[in-house]
UniProtKB/TrEMBL annotation:
Record-given protein name: Inosine-5'-monophosphate dehydrogenase
Species name: Faecalibacterium prausnitzii
Cofactors, names only: K(+)
Entry keyword annotation includes Metal-binding: yes
Gene Ontology BP terms: GMP biosynthetic process; GTP biosynthetic process
SMART domains: IMPDH
Binding-site list for K(+): 315, 317, 320
NCBIfam families registered for this protein in UniProt: PRK07107.1
EC number from the UniProt entry: 1.1.1.205
Chemical reaction(s) catalysed: IMP + NAD(+) + H2O = XMP + NADH + H(+)
Ranges where the CBS domain occurs: 168-226
Chain positions recorded as NAD(+) binding sites: 262-264, 313-315
Length: 504
């Protein structure tokens, strides 16, 4: 006979937090949102990979490209580059993120002294970088002869076939420093000499690294930015359970920090096989999350399989119609509560803490706080991030309002059959996602900072200054349908809202 749960499954919209005692120390600026991204053992000083904010972006074509990955890492979170593209393209996106920001940058834009302006413009178009090192042999580690920046030429005045040696800034006029110069000293040299780039060379004059002023300025402006040990942005990438033997090595070689299996349902042999292959070939050095699951059984299966974190949620996404088409899923709040309890029990039994991620069901900003209070270590967001400038989709104007395109990985548009583990089909038999629009919301930084200030303010109302403290102190109440109505504006006539002004 089928198993029946006694209680109905509930959504975040059916809960509210009850305030706790707030001391004078409970102010938003004092709140820490640091949270573990991957598993760690009891007694370890810290998690091997920790985020500064509890937000990651969904593994979706319409959400997580390299531009959004950079923008989110600047705020302290992690983006998971979508895997429903060629292995080469996904690896290239990861490389662009890893090379975009670093203390010591190995130049990826180099030309020989025989190159022309045409070569400069072609290279700039390919890499997106305007600073080009001219080395004797055209390699990143060759003898430095000069630097070409945009200010060194004018496209309409410099002949296309002009040799770079005629307009580059030669080595004699460059400020350089020895290869072992500390970042602190590099920044002082940049500041004192009012320059934008500082090449670091060895005793023979060979180029080793370039330190950029913009990287220093960026760090000062983004105090929460998430960096690896080499001062590069942290980035994740999605994989599937079909071509992992080819995709994983390419992503690891590109420098990815963490992987996540993108699948419609995680409680499967396919996911355990994928994790097992990674552990066999890389041990614990390659971090990989898995999912999605909605109950304790599914969590334990993936935790025992070796997952570094587990994603929770089936059918709760704004563009997901899995529940409608297949009748499978669970209310997101109920799923998070049960899996969080299983995570804590597993930690007591094994001494291994496996973080859990709430994926889906976030409609309002306060739902993030609810998910954290219910036990989630962080949340994965799709629609939320799709609205921003940095998402990879087009901005369009519909009925006078700017929108961004947004489609699900289960939609026909995505053609992401790799995420469906049902026996090797190479096409979608039916859709589990829709193609849609979401209201345009401007730059990611502005939106994330506003959202997190709300989260911190609510945490202060609960008397908590950290996510673990919130999970200990939170008091949650189920709300009735009439109390939900009561919670919004009611019994008044609203004035017309002032139209928002957006740049075209």
């Amino acid at each position: 006979m089928a198993y029946f749960y006694e209680e109905p499954s509930r959504t975040f919209g059916e809960y509210l937090l009850v305030p706790g005692y707030s001391s004078a120390e409970n102010v938003p600026t004092a709140v820490s949102l640091k949270t573990p991204l991957v598993k760690y053992r009891k007694g370890e000083e810290s998690c091997p990979l920790q985020m500064n904010i509890p937000m990651i972006s969904a593994i979706m074509q319409s959400v997580s490209g390299d531009k959004l990955a950079i923008a989110l890492a600047r705020q302290g979170g992690v983006s998971f580059i979508y895997g429903s593209q060629s292995i080469e393209n996904e690896a290239a996106m990861v490389r662009r993120v890893k090379s975009f920001k670093a203390g010591y940058v190995v130049s990826d834009s180099n030309l020989a002294p025989t190159a022309t302006l045409h070569d400069v413009l072609e290279l700039k178009a390919r890499t997106g970088h305007s600073t080009i090192a001219i080395t004797a042999d055209g390699t990143p580690g060759g003898k430095l002869l000069g630097i070409v920046a945009s200010r060194d030429y004018r496209v309409n005045h410099t002949p296309d076939d002009a040799c770079v040696t005629t307009f580059m800034t030669p080595i004699e006029k460059l400020v350089t420093a020895p290869e072992n110069t500390s970042l602190h000293d590099c920044n002082n040299i940049i500041w004192d000499n009012k320059i934008n780039t500082l090449p670091l060379v060895d005793a023979e004059g060979n180029l080793k690294y370039i330190v950029f002023r913009k990287d220093y300025d960026s760090h000062k402006a983004n105090v929460n930015e998430l960096l690896d040990k080499n001062k590069s942005y942290v980035v994740g990438a999605g994989i599937n359970t079909r071509d992992y033997a080819q995709r994983v090595p390419a992503l690891v070689e590109a420098g990815v920090d963490v992987l996540c299996i993108d699948s419609s349902e995680g409680y499967s042999e396919w996911q355990s096989r994928t994790i097992g292959w990674i552990r066999e070939h890389y041990g614990d050095t390659v971090k990989v999350g898995a999912g999605n699951v909605v109950d304790a059984e599914g969590f334990r299966f993936l935790a025992k399989a070796g997952a570094d974190f587990v994603k929770i949620g089936i059918g709760g996404g704004s563009i997901c119609i899995t529940r409608e088409t297949k009748g499978i899923g669970r209310g997101q709040a109920t799923a998070v509560i049960e899996v969080a309890k299983a995570r804590d029990e597993y930690f007591k039994e094994t001494g291994i803490y496996v973080p859990i991620c709430s994926d889906g069901g976030i409609v309002h900003d306060y739902h993030i706080t609810l998910a954290l209070a219910m036990g989630a270590d962080f949340v994965m967001l799709g629609r939320y991030f799709a609205r921003f400038d940095e998402s990879p989709t087009n901005k369009v104007r519909i009925n006078g309002q700017y929108m961004k395109e947004y489609w699900g990985e289960g939609s026909n548009r995505a053609r992401n059959w790799q995420r469906y583990d049902l026996g090797g089909s190479t096409k979608l038999s039916f859709e589990e996602g829709v193609d849609s629009y979401v209201p345009y919301a401007g730059p990611l930084a502005d939106g994330v900072q506003t959202t997190l200030y709300k989260v911190k303010s609510t945490m202060c109302n609960c008397g908590a200054l950290s996510i673990p403290e919130l999970q200990q102190k939170a008091k949650l109440t189920v709300v009735s349908s009439t109390s939900i109505v009561e919670g919004g504006s009611h019994d008044v006539v609203l004035k017309n809202a002032t139209p928002s002004i957006m740049n075209g």
